[in-house]
Amino acid sequence: MSRQELLSPEGLRIDGRRANELRRIACKASVLNTADGSAYYEQGNTKVLVAVFGPREPRQRTALQQHDQAIINVEFNVAPFSTSERRKRSKGDKRLLEISSFVRQTFEGAVQRGVYPRSQIDIYVHLLQHDGGMLEACVNAATLALVDAGISMDDYVCACTAGLVDEQPLLDLNGQEESAINMPGLTVAVLPRNGSIALLQMESKIHATKLDDVMQLAIEGCKHIHKKLDEAVLAAANDLAVKLNNSVQ
Amino acid sequence: MDIDTETQQQNLTTQIVTPGSAITSDPAFMRGHGTFGEHGTIYSSVAGVVERINKLVSVRSLKQRYSGEIGDIVVGRITEVASKRWRVDVNSRQDAMLLLSSINLPGGIQRRKSESDELQMRSFFAEGDLVFAEVQSYFADGALSLHTRSIQYGKLRNGTFVSVFPQLVPRSRSHFHTLPCGVDVVLGVNGYIWVSKHVPAAKVEANAEHIYSNKNEEISETERESIARVANCIQLLNRLYVKITDTTIIFAYEASLGHAVKDLLTMDIATDLAHAVNSRLAQQG
Asked: What is the DSSP secondary structure assignment for residue A22, as one 8-state letter?
């Protein structure tokens, strides 16, 4: 097969989904007890673990450029066993630094940094398994972990990818689709309450007339993800409230 | 969500809000912690429980770092010796300050602080030391200022340190408890807890000259064991997310007596003990 069949004549994709279907999402907050907040997030076969520490005293006080708000520090780490080809990446890998700066910039807009002057919020992201949608999974998992840490935010940040094949927008690309040559893909992160866009990233070409459709589809996906994240947060909060309530009585 | 109908429902779990969810758009309400306003509507900025005091609406997060209040009793760890002050880690969003002028120096409470005191600050508190202190005031940027101007405050010795969720330690009249098993417990409201050998108050006062000593007293093996047992029990309560008070610690301690100290935190025994503690709490409640 010279050209991969990304969308079958019946309208099904490689993994059997329809064009506007998300992959299975499973997530859980409060998975680590040493961190202030943590989350485990699975979207299809992409699996991410995030630990949030802070707000806490900045490690290097010289890094504080603005004294009236918190600094956000993101470290992104890809497990050597995360892809089919085992590969150890150095800490200075430009690709990893780029992703971590995307995540940082996204949350600098959503976290109410003014509430925590002279502090630092550390977000450690570990990609355990990679099958497309690395950035979206990192953003969603980090949101969950930040909420779990009790850090003030304007809203959730929900991210989703979308691509275009044969004039047909596809939601939530998996690894195979993402690496296909004839597949332009973009990642959008939105604040679902007012629909403002926190992140928009695209590395390939897409026809200008089609961009809007693809983005709209991705934003639709973000809304579904918002529901999932909200459920996970409520589950964790209810769990704690029940435990606390029992002990108060 | 309308807050007035909300207050009629006393069930805690129904009042939980998540970031970005609207609480009320009634202009009569003022927004407190954990909320923000946009276009006349008050939204929650954290996941937690809505609380209302008169016209002030706030959201209390169920899991959060310690935010200090004046008068709080805390346990902290010295992280840095700076000029005329120590920086103290109190599990808060910034390190707290302990000024040289707000500690008691050996040899008279009213003694003036001289330059030589400034030079030998490290002989009072060095990096890594644990202090038992009270929150005296805030600085302009929100950092806490501590003081240790009482005989019961000061350096912590003769024991072990346990860190728990700060929400689990309620503010109460007393944060220093002597348990029946002969162990002293200092419950810092910042979630730092010190478990140590019991030293009678009279002895502490007699040794006022040695309040900054780094030497532990003689601790017998049985004392060590009860300290370790209490420390593990506190860890267990933390895992259960149960309020940590002298009563709950004693419950857990009594339930644990049938097991060896080293086994307390293993999965099956911890689960058994959790059931025992929970049912005891339910009975009492």
From this structure: P
Edge-to-edge, what's the strand order for the sheet holding B41-44? Answer: B22-24, B41-44, B35-38
Question: Is residue B137 domain-resident?
Answer: no
The H or E element containing residue A108 is helix A94-110
Domain-embedded: residue B36: yes
Decide the pairing of beta strands B85-89 and B176-179.
Answer: unpaired
Query: What is the number of domains present in chain B?
Result: 1
**A116–B63 C-beta distance less than 8 A:** no
Tens of pLDDT along B36-90? 999 889 999 999 999 888 899 999 898 889 988 999 999 999 999 998 999 999 9
Instruction: Return d(Cα A69, Cα B3) in angstroms, integer.
Output: 31
B34 at the A interface (CB within 8 A)? yes
| % residues pLDDT > 90 (chain A) | 67
Among B43, B44, B61, the strongest candidate for a mutation testing the A interface, having the largest count of A CBs within 10 A, is B61
Residue B55, domain CATH:
2.40.50.100
Q: Tell me what the mean pLDDT of segment B242-260 comes to.
A: 91
Domain assignment present for residue B112? The answer is no
pLDDT number for residue B6? 47
Amino acid in the structure at residue B16: I
Sequence-separated (6 or more) residues with CB below 8 Å from residue B69: B135, B171
Q: Which of A32, A34, A46, A29 is nearest to A99 (CA)?
A: A46
B94 neighbourhood in chain A, CB within 8 Å: 55-57, 118-119
A235 touching B, CB under 8 A?
A: no
In a domain, B54, yes or no: yes
Judge contact between B250 and B280, C-beta under 8 A: no
What is the tens place of the pLDDT at every residue in A87-133?
Answer: 888 778 898 999 999 999 999 999 999 999 889 999 999 999 999 89
Backbone CA torsion sign across A49, A55, A57, A61? positive
Delineate the domains of chain A, giving CATH numbers in brackets. 25-248 (3.30.230.70)
Tell me if A237 and B48 make a contact (CB, 8 A cut-off).
yes
Distance (Å) from the C-alpha of residue B110 to the closest C-alpha of chain A? Answer: 33
B87, B96 Cβ separation under 8 angstroms: yes
What is the spatial distance between Cα B281 and Cα B252, in angstroms, rounded to a whole number? 10
Which residue range is the domain that position B25 belongs to? Answer: 3-61
| Longest CA pairwise span in chain A (Å) | 68
State whether residue A192 sits within 8 Å of chain B by CB. Answer: yes
Q: Can you give the pTM of this predicted structure?
A: 0.90
The closest CB to that of A248, out of B45, B63, B243, belongs to B243
CA distances from A169 to A160, A163, A184, A215, B57 (A): 13, 6, 10, 9, 44
